[in-house]
Amino acid sequence: MADSVHIAGGAAQDRNHPATGAPEKVVVADPPPEPDYPRYRVEPGEPARLGERDPDETEHYRSKKDVAGELAAARKHIGQLQARLYAEHHRSVLIVLQAMDTGGKDGTIKGVFAGVNPQGCQVWSFKAPSSEERDHDFLWRYHQRVPPAGMIHIFNRSHYEDVLVVRVKSLVPETVWRGRYDAINDFERQLTDSGVTLIKFYLHISRDEQRKRLQSRLDDPEKHWKFSSNDVAERAYWDDYQLAFDEALTRCSTPYAPWYVVPANAKWFRNLVVARTIEDTLAAMDPQYPPAEPDLEKVTIPA
Ligand code: ATP
Ligand code: MG
């Protein structure tokens, strides 16, 4: 029997037999590694180092097909855990989604939450604040949308915009936005202390991937509605945004409200990482159905 050669991903490879020198083909696939979602977490107290994280990462998966079974299972499990969370009516979950323009926030919501009862889940999208919102402290509008007991809320953009676009476009003086990192950490600490579990995702795409996605919105008439010249204008600030994200993720990834940097050039892999992170977080919360009324077995339903 020929010696085996270890090939990541299991691609066939030509080689010469080490002893006889005869040409041969050997394929030995690596066993799939255990899901390792904490590798995408920004360790509290350590720099996020966005520039060193690969937006093209897909682990050992090669295509959408490879993740289909695992994604479907994760979605189903999220649905089951969400039903318990809703029935328990005690704690709640806040999912924060941030990304560069075209980063895939909408697609992630669609792709991950398909199995969740809409009654227990709500999406809040934050645009530029209204004049009423601007008349309040910056956290006011977000605090009102924090999930109550039993609910999962998704923030499509969030309070982080106030240290992202606000910083990049100098919408307030630096002394003001600089003070917000601590304010955000205090806010999130307070939420955690009152039973809200936060999971924060930065969907990490490359500059070139953004170009492709903008181009496809131009090329495909069905995507024209998604095209915004403003996204093209904002693209000029790519480096400034990356810097702002880097600092926000570094300063605001805490043990109680961690940030995850999700490789997001491949949409299917992005959905898998987000789904399994939510699944694992919900499973660790271990929500329980409340106790039933006593003596249920003695109850008969009148005809
Ligand atoms: P879509 O996927 O539909 O494009 P979107 O989240 O990009 O979704 P848009 O209406 O295109 O929605 O953009 C919302 C805009 O609101 C963004 O440019 C964002 O920077 C801006 N915005 C969000 N929060 C704030 C804030 N606190 N201050 C100023 N601008 C904000
Ligand atoms: Mg937009």
Structural description of this entry:
The chain is α/β, with parallel strands linked by helices and 303 residues long. The protein folds into two domains: 1-31, no CATH class; 37-285, Rossmann fold, CATH 3.40.50. It has helices spanning 64-88, 105-112, 131-134, 140-143, 165-168, 174-178, 180-193, 207-219, 229-235, 238-252, 267-285; strands spanning 13-16, 23-26, 92-99, 121-125, 152-156, 196-204, 259-263. The protein has a five-stranded parallel β-sheet with strand order 4-5-3-6-7, with helices on both faces. Strands 1-2 form a two-stranded antiparallel ribbon. A hairpin with a 6-residue loop joins β1 and β2. α2 (105-112) packs across α11.
Could you write a compact summary of the structure shown?
The protein is an alpha/beta fold and 303 residues long.
Features:
303 residues, alpha/beta, Rossmann fold, 7 strands, 39% helix, binds adenosine-5'-triphosphate, binds magnesium ion
CATH topology tier name of the largest domain: Rossmann fold
> How would you describe the shape?
globular
Terminal residue distance: 74 Å
Order of helices and strands: EEHEHEHHEHHHEHHHEH
Major sheet characteristics: 5 strands, parallel
Low-confidence stretches: 1-10
Q: Which class of secondary structure composition applies to the elements?
A: alpha/beta
Query: If helices are DSSP runs of H or I spanning 4 or more residues, what is the number of helices?
Result: 11
